[in-house]
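User: Hello! My lab partner asked me to get a predicted holo structure for this protein. The small molecule is pyridoxal-5'-phosphate, SMILES included with the sequence. Please write out the structure tokens.
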Amino acid sequence: MQFCDLGAQYRAYKTEIDEAIASVLESSVFVGGPEVESLERELCAFSGAEHAIACANGTDALQAALMALGVRPGDEIIVPDFTFAATAEAVVLAGAVPVFADIDPATFNVAPETVLPRITERTRGVVAVSLFGRIPDLEGLVRLGRPRGIWVLEDGAQSFGASREGRLSGSIADVSTVSFYPSKPLGCYGDGGAVFCRDAALAARVRRVCDHGQSGKYVHEVAGFNSRLDAIQAAVLRVKLRHFERELEARNQVALAYGELLSGVVPVPELADGERSSWAQYTVRVPRRDEIRSRLRERGIPTAVHYPVPLRRQPAFAGFAGLDDSCPESDRAAGEVLSLPMHAFLAQGCIRRTGSAISETLSGIGSGFDPG
Ligand SMILES: *Cc1c(COP(=O)(O)O)cnc(C)c1O
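Assistant: Hello! Below are the structure tokens for the protein in complex with pyridoxal-5'-phosphate.
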């Protein structure tokens, strides 16, 4: 069993992908160009974003967005304590100070209530992550931030295709980012990313930052960096985008099947009305995680932990955490989360095997765990 089966996906679209890559090789346009421009248009059409700027990866997308927003040294940017390191790393690289907010235990995401206590007069923005493919209350965060002059950036690295009340990831916050790392819901065959926004002037600044700060050839308005998407990656993404809606539905079916097998056994993700996840991960909470993981491993079932250490406890970021910045829900999640195999090609038999292995292991170790 595979945690994320990219081989099965390639075999399903092999002819189309091979042709798309060959046509880039024939064109000799390898960086940017028409493939990338077409991808940008198609990403906007899919997500409802006004502008899409493709770049080299999801971490660069965050950094480019922060630079284009004019983040300055000493600015405080609120980030989740429970996320992948890139979210806070980009803030530090942009010269600002990450301030860690706790999460809502039901969604693993920040919420207006967990962000509000972290706001000070130095707060410039909030980076809200759509963790595991579920969009946080971005509208609530925008309502909280706007009157205070605080922008909201969605780190949508894991959530392309997700939606909340009909609005898709990439189109809700002031600015959003996505990663096309191979194992993300929409992944390429290397690194890739994009920034989405509504405002044309901000889009132009993002594009400039990603192109050495150039406004025209050899006119460098600001110090930027080099972050471009390869045409081969764009071509692969355009093929996968044509199949993406069906993959999202397949992932949703996997999640529904896990939910039926595991609810009442362990706390499982439960979507709100009008919410659609991209199911980047199917993450449950378990007691005695190491023991459960090794029992599952013995049966050939791979699992992963996203993420074992809250960011404010990481050596790279501990220096930014204030003494009173407690994040009890983030600490608890880091000790309990377990991600199960999730991809669009996962067989029913694998889902059942994983579900029963977890139930059997839990009753075997007699945890008395409250499934919530
Ligand atoms: C993957 C990821 C990123 C970084 O994306 P890369 O393309 O790997 O640079 C940023 N934030 C989150 C939440 C991620 O999961």
